[in-house]
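Table S7 (text form). Paired inputs.
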Amino acid sequence: MSQKKHSVAIIGCGRMGQEYARAYAAYPDTEIVAIAEYHPERRKAVGERFGVEALYPDAPALLRDIVPDIAAVVTPVKYTKEAVIACAEAGVKGVSADKPLAAVLSDADEMVETCAARGVVFGGGNLQRAMNEVQEAARRIRSGAFGALTGASVHGFGGEISGGGCQHISVLRLFAGAEVEEVTAWGTPEEALAGDTDDGLIIHGRFRMTSGLECPVFGTPTPSTGVEVWSEDALVRWNWAPPEVFQGFDANGRRIRLNTNYAPYSWSEFGYLTGSIRSLIATVETGSDLWISGHDLRQALEVAIAAKLSAMRDSAPVRLPLQDRSLSLYPRPYRWLGGDATGQPQSAAEAKGGA
């Protein structure tokens, strides 16, 4: 950790935005200097809660007065692109956005490309790919500790394939060290397949990776709801927790579960949000690799769009990258528009940290 104290702006202060604020307020090397939140009562409540006086209704208003080192964009998805690009154009050094990144693939492209062109570190959000133990398991896979991978699988890829499903795709790409290059999918129920959103959509199918791995996809839970990769004698399983590792076989032919001995990680009270934020700060300071990036979120969106497209085409294989960047998949209304617009508002008392 450097001695420098990074200035931080929180853009969007709903329930998740307040979790980002809690984390950035706790770290000794970051200071929240400004907040943008369109809801006036919540803006005031969150400002008082975290001792921030520079309060604004939106990102453009904030950026006219203050250009922080880091901006956490935690708005409903509909407003993410505008805020990310405004931060990049204003000269913010590091910007993060949460999941899903966008609904339209070209919007995700524009955010990634604008940040890259301006030298802005573009981090992802509150995803388990940024969990310390997930990253350590991936490093062990890459080191060859388990031998060459021979297979992979995704479990429980349903309900929200661009919202929650981006968790699966991001971990799969990390463990496999490869991209998804072809998707073949079956989707149910029919009403979800016919809709514009990913709400309730269940996808079964197959992902083919650039490494040659063939990855079956189970839309409903098996004994697992996560991602597995394996070699001839080892298996690594992420199931919404620190990954399990099995290597070798006992006398009955069952896999032997190893003691993973993952290294401890500071500030664990913030869960895997910790890794996302600390990785962003480290990358801003040193240029190290992000644990979860805006590019990762874009890739997850593209795979989800391809999966629905394949299912709508009677399971025709769909090659990636998609040529039509106008394709879209909208998240469920709560993610797209936020709780205030979808009947789940947050009270001022809750925003202040009360019950």
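Next pair, protein 2 of 2.
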Amino acid sequence: MKLYHYVHCPYCIRVRMGLGALKLSYESIVLAYDDESTPNRLTGKKMLPIVDYGNGKIQNESLDILKSVDTQDTLSWGLLGQNTEIETLLTLLSDPVHSLCMPYWVWTPEFNPQSRKYFQTKKELKRGSFKNLIKNKEMHLAKLESLINLEIEPHLIAFYKSPKFTILDIMLAAQLWGMYVFPEFQFSEKVHQYLQNIKIITQFDYHQDFWQ
């Protein structure tokens, strides 16, 4: 099984965490962000993650991938149907997280000058200049902290709305993980410990592909 992904991408992180939790091995292939030909060749569109199962089946969409490989319902998919508000929460989180992290993601080892320029040009069309995102960081931080304090931390039993680890934790942790790159933000001890527990369960190492 081959996983084509970006290191920073929350949807790609979902799949990495899910495969780790399910103890499924795979070949990790990090694509340059300006590589359009590879995803177009595999699926006809520039969208990652992509999994090539090696049997002629190629799939994208993070949740579809994880459903396909979780044949024993280890991740408790029924909870996703019972907690449809998780998608709304993730949408609300994505705005401050992406606004805060994008200007920093482009300086990680994942990017070279060409892919950095491609990424920045594309993302600034939607969010405005990275310079202004940093200038307005206090607004984005306030929005993020409000969501964490009101919509996340009160629902951490042992895991998110559950005494056991589920697909909801993968979805939430993958969205929040990017904030570790932002130098002026710290999670509360409760949320940080929650994320670190997810890291252990999913055998997740954000940086592993940087040093290969």
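The radius of gyration is 17 Å.
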